[in-house]
Design brief:
The chain is α/β, with parallel strands linked by helices and 157 residues long. It has a single domain, classed as Metalloproteases ("zincins"), catalytic domain (Collagenase (Catalytic Domain), 3-Layer(aba) Sandwich), CATH 3.40.390.30. It has 5 helices and 4 strands. A 4-stranded mixed sheet has the order 1-2-4-3. It is found in: Cytoplasm. This is Endoribonuclease YbeY. Belongs to the endoribonuclease YbeY family. Single strand-specific metallo-endoribonuclease involved in late-stage 70S ribosome quality control and in maturation of the 3' terminus of the 16S rRNA.
Length: 157
Amino acid sequence: MEIILSSVPEKRKPAPKVKETVTSVLTEAARELGISPHAEVGVVFADDAYIRELNRDYRGIDAATDVLSFALDEGEEPAVQGGPEEALLGDIVISLETAERQAAEFGHSLEREMAYLTVHGMLHLVGYDHEDEHDKAAMRSREEQILAALGIGREGN
């Protein structure tokens, strides 16, 4: 799977370890979910001001958040393993500022927080949601399964 990383604003770049974590989580998620190796996903590392603007414009919520996902084929099945065409899954936008605060609040590393936000965003791209308790439980179970495959537990790292 092709993973495109960028930062907005440009000066707000994550540490190399964070980029490595995000890439490994997306790679494992794609493997676990059976997503085509021809698929593409973008990750934007943002600040609170940028993600707040997106949250306001696209969700009507005028507040910063930790992660937003913008699926290109919303409502359609993701490209499965071995598909011949390139599948553009969409973009995941993660606020580094919010991730840093949440990591401190939860008492774990920034890499652990970024791993969780990345898998959460990826699952949204492929149709998972948490609108009701059943969907929330299914999504949480899948998040934990993917993170566990990378050796990242609930309390981990």
